[in-house]
TrEMBL record, chain A:
CDD domains associated with the record: EF1_alpha (cd01883), HBS1-like_II (cd16267)
The protein, known as: Elongation factor 1 alpha-like protein
Boundaries of every Tr-type G domain copy: 390-615
Gene Ontology CC entries for this record: cytosol; Dom34-Hbs1 complex
Keyword GTP-binding applies: yes
Automatic annotation (TrEMBL), chain B:
GO molecular function: metal ion binding
Provenance organism: Glonium stellatum
Protein name: Protein DOM34 homolog
Function text: Component of the Dom34-Hbs1 complex, a complex that recognizes stalled ribosomes and triggers the No-Go Decay (NGD) pathway. In the Dom34-Hbs1 complex, dom34 recognizes ribosomes stalled at the 3' end of an mRNA and engages stalled ribosomes by destabilizing mRNA in the mRNA channel. Following ribosome-binding, the Dom34-Hbs1 complex promotes the disassembly of stalled ribosomes, followed by degradation of damaged mRNAs as part of the NGD pathway.
Domain eRF1/Pelota-like N-terminal: 1-124
Gene3D superfamilies to which the protein is assigned, alphabetical: 3.30.1330.30, eRF1 domain 2, Pelota, domain A
Cofactor: a divalent metal cation
Keyword terms, alphabetized: Cell cycle, Cell division, Cytoplasm, Meiosis, Metal-binding, Mitosis
Amino acid sequence: MPPKSGHQRVKQLGYDGDDLYYDDDYSDEGGGDGLSPEDKEQMRQGTIQVKAALASSISVSDAEIQEALWHYYYDIDKSVTYLKSKSAKVEEKKSSGKLDILIFGLKKLFPYPIPRQSSYKHVAVSAAEFFNDTPWLNVPIHRRGEIIVEPLYPRGGLLGGSSKPSKLAALAAARKRKQREDGVASVPDNADTSHDKEPDRAVALLDRLSLKDRAKEKAPPSLGSSEQPEELSKKKPRQTRYPVRRKKSPSPPPVQRREEPSGPIPEPSAAIEIPDLRAPPSTFAAAMIGANRMEPQPRPLRGSMFSLPYIHNGWFTNANAFAGPSPDDIVMNAQAKGQKSKKVPSKQVNGGKSTNKLTESVSSLTIEEAPKVKSKNLNVLQEFEKSNMKKTASFVVIGHVDHGKSTLMGRLLYDLKVIDQRSVDKLRKEAETIGKSSFALAWVMDQTSEERSRGVTVDIATNYFETEKTRFTILDAPGHQDFIPNMIAGASQADFAVLVIDAGTNSFESGLKGQTKEHALLVRSMGVQRLVIAVNKMDTISWSKARYDEISQQMTAFLTAASFSPKNLAFIPCAGLTGDNIIRPPPDGTIPGNWYSGPTLVEALDASEPAKRALSLPLRLTVADVFRGGVMNPLSVSGRLDAGSLQVGDTVLAMPANETATIKGIEVEGEPVDWAVAGQITTLHLADIDAVHLRLGDIVCSPAAPIKNVKSFQAKILAFEHVVPMSVDVFRGRMNAPAKVTKLVAVLSKQSGEVEKKRPRIVQPGSVARVVVEMEREMPLDSGTRIVLRADGATVAAGLLESV
Amino acid sequence: MRLLKQQIELKDGSGFATLLPEEPEDMPNDLLRARAMRRVTKESDSGSVASTRIALDLTIRVTSTDFDVGSGQLHVAGKVAAESEHVKLGSYHTLDLELQRKFTIEKADGWDSVAVEMLREALDATKRAEVWAVVMQDGLANICLITEHQTILRQRVEVPIPRKRKGGLDGHEKALEKFFSTLLSTLLRHIDLTVTPLKPLLLASPGFTANSFLTYLRNYATTNNNKPLLALVPLILVAHSSSGHQHALAEVLSSPAVLSKLADTKYARETALMDRFFALLRQDDGRAWYGPREVERAVEKGAVGRGGGVLLISNALFRAQNVEERKRWVGLVDRVREVEGGEVRVLSSLHESGKRLESLGNVAAILTFPLEDLDEENEEEGGGEAQGQQNDMQI
């Protein structure tokens, strides 16, 4: 059921006070009158018939029916039509709440009756009588309703000033009295309160969020009646509400109307302090005004001298059914004043109860907004075996700066038609305009404006392509020394590496001193076994065999020294800019004497063995990127699944923040999937977590087997530079944390791993040592993790975490 | 620091000094006299208790100190050493020493050479170079103030920056822009641009981040016509660092570009010295040693003497409340300086160079001749320490 409309609640707020004033003006109006017995009988039967005709489709009170019958001279058909159209109209009107608020505001300005109207008070001939023979039928119904704007002036003086109630009114009053007498017992108050409560609760509770305390303070202690707490909790916030804020609430629930008139409002009460002197609008006024929702608040009947004919009109009473304190409340308030202290406990119970309800309903609201992601409860490992996935591999492209890594990969993607001709043409054109035409292919990978304007790869670029055998993920690493942290991040996601070497004069040599060496050592120490060495830019040395041989000999010597196994090395001559020997062998005549007939670069890539997947281990994913994945996915992370598996709906734990999150969606290579396993580079769309808890280098793990946050650890390192106790940066994937080497425990033998010297003063480059590293802040690390230590822009050591 | 009054007998080390701190560095020890506010409760004959706050001169015997880098206040706690009509002997009081408030120090066990040296250094008002430095990398920046005496990390700025992704470039560039604007506003909150002369600003980063930030700053100053900021622009120095962490500052300060501008400041000298030490250590020819025991032994053997012997010692060791400990190091310093004729450099533990020294055990030495195996006895845990004898064990 929809919540109550805004204007209703608005009115409920204000009426208790000011309405009383101008209603007093009618106080002496009305009076007894009776229908003839025949009329009564006719009316009674007509009412029953009309009710039957209307069935339950429209809720109309008896008084309404009788009024209609009266007007139509007991013509049942006409009455039914009239009532139907009228109730339709009423509903329409009710949704336009603003008007009422306006009126309400104006009334506030004139809390006292405008004196002028007193002159209408004693009109000798009632308006109803005066207009008695007016042909009502000719008044179009749709026009009747328009007059609703009128009640700027205190109502009734002109139109409603009937000196005595009509016969119909008397009849209605009589009926009502009767109904009340036997209805009080049978219709418990609870019934309608609960009806009213349901739709209201969400909104009312929200209001209470802010007003609860105040409301509680003011709430009179209950008498202990069973429905009291609910009534109180329902009413109090309304009384303290501001009218204008509620404008936008949805339209009123039409369904409730039938129940409400029989509610607690007319409940008779022996001790009513406020004399009820108001008269309702006359029949005429009601007819003229139509669905007037500005009716005064219903009041207790018994204290009043006069009957109230229209109290049972649905649209009449509904609007402000609970506007002021009900008679009960008034009594209870009065009584409570005398016994306040006694009632304190029940008040607290009341407060606690409503708080509980509040929490409940608020939490249920949240659930509606963000429905929980349903897990499909897949057995991911079985799914994975069933899926018979094509071999997948990711490789990192490494090498010295300007050796042509990005261009080579751009060419590869272009030749494999992953990038279409048009995009490449566009890039060429852009590159030419800034005078860097040779960079066009590299721009396939280098996309940021900084990378393009400087002609240097800064960060890892990820791209995908597929051969007949394998689906590949390219991680194009930056070659520049300053961006080695990014290169480490890329290498940590790779199964194998492609080392690009510029065959040009001096370039190879400078590279060997620089990042060719450092990168190769880094990827090795990060666990990469297989290396494809692309001897690039062969076109610049006219495919000289001698040069190629020289390079491969030197590199083989160096790499085997760096503990690469020779069988895991593959040398491929190629030319990235021209595209020779990348996916197809160079055209005849390119190679003098055709000295090379080995595999192309792509063939060499294809020959790679699939990496083993740590499927059964607990989940570990190193966050390589945190970003906004779109409107639907405000928070996404990506990274390689180092171990384990996950599926949509899983709850994961982000460390070091120690915050849980729910996986809303998984993407692999840009395609949404239901699950992912170790070895895949995945994007996770997360829910139920704030972005502040996720940083680059964090670990996403399973809550069942969480990774520990570590402040200091012991590691076995291979030193690339001199190691003394000093400040270092610890790298692990994207993680880059300041730390200190605090203790050199021992230098170890390279072969046997036995202690050669305890507590060395300094660890020489190339030796293996055991050191203690203390982190500045706690970081999630597992023993067995491969880490890299860097200081002053150089890689100091790489190592394996021994114990934490 | 300004000396108001001094009366120290250099022979026996007795005497006192009255000082006015102008720099947030000093470490009073022992007897300290300064003006303080103290709440005094008095009980009248009738038993009613009246409590008043009065300003009085208090002399306390220092038991502990706590330096608040942020406010530049030194909180010195201790027992009241001189009774007055308001304060009883032996009751506790914590004096807050702050800038521009004078105090008097008296050394209970005498003014030793290090203390006098420290005092002299503190009083050296000649050159007081201060530099703002920002070490940064994409998404991380450390704003530091480098003074003669210390490097203070004033603020760390961290903004998450999404990495470049296919189709996600917007996020990267926007976040970078946000990072720069956050960094600049933070920086402007710290740097007082109204003070003349303006302190130079050092920007250091790997890659192009520092340059990009400089461009951003310049654009910002121009578009907003921020004159003070424009005046700062020529004083900005861009340097290279390998990361945005604070310890990368050491690397920045030792880079030639920066040294040429900051040469001859204390921290530049200290940084250069540490670099020299590490260079020697790397050669591993036995001429560079670190660690308390090793250095003490080297001094025993007379290796830290005339002709290039340098003792590097962190002032943290002299802050030790333990008198024995302090005497040990003062003795070492005195020996090197007086007996051996070597050079002694006291490095501030609040500086980058001092922090590098700290990881080496707060004390290191460059020897005049190579010595091997100074560390061999460590396995016996100081068994032969007293004799300082060389163990013949071979590697």
